[in-house]
Amino acid sequence: MEAFKGQNILSFIKELPDDEACKAYLAKIKWQDGFKCMKCGHTKGCEKSGYRYHCYGCNHVESATANTLFHKVKFGLQKAFCVVFEMSTSSKSVSSIQMGKRFNIRQGTAWFFMQKVRKAMKSSQQYPLSELVHVDEFTVGGKEEGKQGRSYDSKKKKAVIAVELSAKHQIKRVYVRAIDDYSAKSLTPIFEEHISTTAKIVTDKWRGYSPLKKEYNIEQKFSNNGKNYIL
Description:
This protein is an alpha/beta fold. It is built from six helices and eight strands, in the order ααβββαααβββαββ.
């Protein structure tokens, strides 16, 4: 079975119709490059019933869910898979209350599992944005009355966003980072952590991006009277 791709939940459920199918899927993904015991590191063993592996080195029996998000999930693997599917494909945040109602899970249980998923989804920084990337800085809370341009004395939170777009200008990935100010020093980390030097980057004319042109392919354009020019 190949990795599931797409956002059609009906196809997803058809592909993984029950807990056993989910366990089989996990086993295939986990051991597709061969078995390695998580206890002793031994690579010799045999498969057992229930999608488990018996290590010949230390006799440890490892389940397909061990050392994964789904280990000891008490509300069923298929439900857990569906929660991950919802969180990874939805463009809007789903609360633990909504998730609990949707899959008949206690709100507290849904919240705890969703926290584990969010932690696992945190960027490894191994796959930087590499295509068309738009970068812009903003304040959380919107524009302040009576103030034009960037406000340095504002108590509102400042942030910078990097959006990777497909050839059809559809959003692929997004990273947001809080910043102290709009200086090149504050803007640099999101570039270093999440954007490839081979990417085509578009920003506004803010001078804080100018020093980054030495390392990155940046095209600076005038913004439309302060409006978002990205999409």
